[in-house]
Amino acid sequence: MTLALFSNKTHTALRRLVLGSFLAAAVLAGGGAAYAANGAGGTGSKPAPHQGQGARRKHGPKDPARLIKRFDKNADGKLTVAELPEKAQKRLGKADTNKDGTLSAEELKAHAELRMKDRATKQKARFAKKDKNGDGFLTRDEVGDKRWERVKAADANRDGKVSADELRPARSARKPPAAR
């Protein structure tokens, strides 16, 4: 004698639910693969638009030629500061080092590299300021309980202290802030 765990009606409903879940997962996986293969949603002819406030972007030098092409409103092959969106004018206006009113690919690349170096310098200085005993590690005593709760996730070897080398990958993997 066997005991039925579910009635036939419930059993059929559960099978449909499981099958539907597998089908939905397959559709989503296929759509995600198509999205990734198509340049993260772009058609290949235009750069993908900014993904929104919460999107995590990779930092580093962008393709200057692509940037110039994207924002060159009058299609003259030159990018002027005035053709940029207002926020970008403030940030990239400094890249025009020869003060000719246009941004060359070389100026944009040099500006991006300078910003990356500046960011790295600031991160090193912040780390050194928190590293009160100068041993190259941050501990709970140095950063306090509240900050340690965030920092300890970077402690890859679980030794109770975090090095700058452990912080780098954790920093790039963390969730972006909700709004900037």
- Tell me what portion of residues adopts beta-strand conformation: under 5%
Shape: flat
Report strand order across the widest sheet.
1-2
Order of helices and strands: HHEHEHEHHEH
Descriptive overview:
With 180 residues, this protein is mainly α. Helix content is 51%, strand content 4%. The protein is built from 7 helices and 4 strands; from the N terminus they run H-H-E-H-E-H-E-H-H-E-H. It has helices at residues 8-37, 64-71, 86-92, 105-130, 140-143, 145-151, 164-173; strands at residues 79-80, 102-103, 137-138, 162-163. The strands form 2 sheets. A two-stranded antiparallel sheet has the order 1-2. The radius of gyration is 25 Å and the shape is flat. The N and C termini lie far apart (65 Å).
Task: Write a concise keyword list for the protein shown above.
mainly alpha; 7 helices; two-stranded antiparallel sheet; 4 strands; 180 residues; 51% helix
SSE layout and pairings?
Elements: H1 8-37, H2 64-71, E1 79-80, H3 86-92, E2 102-103, H4 105-130, E3 137-138, H5 140-143, H6 145-151, E4 162-163, H7 164-173
Antiparallel strand pairs: 1-2, 3-4
